[in-house]
Amino acid sequence: MFNIGNKVIGDGNPTFIIAEAGVNHNGDINIAKELVDQAVFAGVDAIKFQTFKAEKLVTGYADMAEYQKHNIGHVSSQFNMLKKLELSYENFIEIQKYCKHKEIMFLSTPFDFESADFLSSIGMEAFKISSGDLTNIPFLEHIARFNKPIILSSGMATLAEIEQATNVINFLGNKEVAVLHCTSNYPAKLQNVNLNAMNTIKNAFKVVSGYSDHTEGITIPIAATAMGANIIEKHFTIDKSMEGPDHKASLCPLELKEMVKAIRNVEMALGTGIKRYNSSEVDTMKAARKSIVASRYIKAGEIINLADLDYKRPGTGLSPRFYRDIVGKKTNKDINIDEQIALNMVE
Questions:
Q1: pLDDT at position 297, please?
Q2: 56 contact partners, CB below 8 Å, separation of at least 6
Q3: Residue 159 and residue 278: Cα distance in Å, rounded?
Q4: Burial class (CB in 10 A: 0-12, 13-18, 19+), 16
Q5: How many CB atoms lie within 10 A of CB 276?
Q6: What's the CA gap between 229 and 222, in Å, rounded?
Q7: Under a CB-based contact definition with an 8 Å cutoff, are residues 316 and 291 in contact?
Q8: Exposure on the CB side of residue 328, measured as CA atoms within 13 A
Q9: Tens of pLDDT along 76-118?
Q10: What is the distance between the alpha carbons of residues 109 and 93, in angstroms, rounded to a whole number?
Q11: pLDDT at residue number 70
Q12: Which one of 77, 88, 241, 243 counts the least CB within 10 Å of its CB?
């Protein structure tokens, strides 16, 4: 359990919901601000972008991923694609100020050392590390030294790789690490989600855990919340038809708002885990449970036999579980058929 800003992250606390704007601003700061507005509308805890310099992130000859080719509709290099999606550091300072004005937490994933240093310099509350950098040990070491909470996505990773990554971060004195289960396809098919792995990670490493979702719709993040996710991250966009690698696998603002509402409802329904009757059930309890009643007219002085008892609603009298305290006892008054039998009627 740890804090990100004024939010407590961990079991027993509300799920920390991150709206992943990513690069869905298409390199336009005005769209980025509109994404902030829509994240506020949806009621999430934080909005997250991606900060990078294309020259420092990818070689000029790196090919696009297949999902990127499919979603964009044409083939280019990763460099050319990412260069169009860059925002400047000045843009991010402006976006961070806008988030503060709108009272929503600003987060961004750095993809290179310089961008990580920049985000640390502007006082970002926590660092999100992408699945692609989980095995980038020098980068993990660099970010761990900022001594800020780290949220680590684990798409494409094995347990051994997650263990190495968390050990590297912990070794440098940073113990505030959350690991998000993730399937790095956009969109991810349901049969590839393997949601149970989220709790495998949690139990294996005793970390704050969560789920970064790339499926279509809102069903799986809701299910992850019910399974105990401490953090949920979900891509969203203003318009799914916009050109770009991630729009098609993102939620629209109304869907994001519905996801947040559903997650909060699930949290409310999960409750404390203590099994007891609820105050709202008292009236139903009286109407639905049963009491011990006489199955016949019983005269004063008779010995009550088991056959003299019946069990009928309402449950306002002596519970049937106490029938042994009645059988074999002598009545001290006449008892009519269907009359509730109380302990003070026998001796």
A1: 98
A2: 111, 112, 113, 114, 115
A3: 41
A4: buried
A5: 7
A6: 9
A7: yes
A8: 4
A9: 788 888 888 999 999 999 999 999 999 999 999 999 999 999 9
A10: 14
A11: 66
A12: 241
Q: Which two tokens stand for residue 328?
A: 């074999």
Q: Number of H helices and number of E strands within the chain? A: 12, 12
* Rounded mean pLDDT, 20-28: 95
The 10s digit of each residue's pLDDT in 223-248 is 999 999 999 999 999 999 888 778 88
In angstroms, rounded to a whole number, what is the distance separating the alpha carbons of residues 301 and 321?
A: 24
Strand partners, 151: 128, 178
70 CB contacts (<8 Å, ≥6 apart)? none
Alpha helices by DSSP H, listed for 183-297, are 197-205, 219-226, 253-270, 282-288
Q: Cis peptide leading into 314, omega within 30 of 0?
A: yes
The β-bridge relationship of strands 208-213 and 231-235 is parallel
Residue 213 pairs with which residues in a beta bridge?
A: 234
CB 180 within 8 A of CB 154: yes
How many residues are listed for the chain in this entry?
Answer: 347
Element (H, E) at 79: helix 78-84
Q: Is the distance from CB of 210 to CB of 200 less than 8 angstroms? A: no
* pLDDT on residue 64: 72
Q: Label residue 72 exposed, middle or buried (CB < 10 Å: 0-12, 13-18, 19+).
A: middle
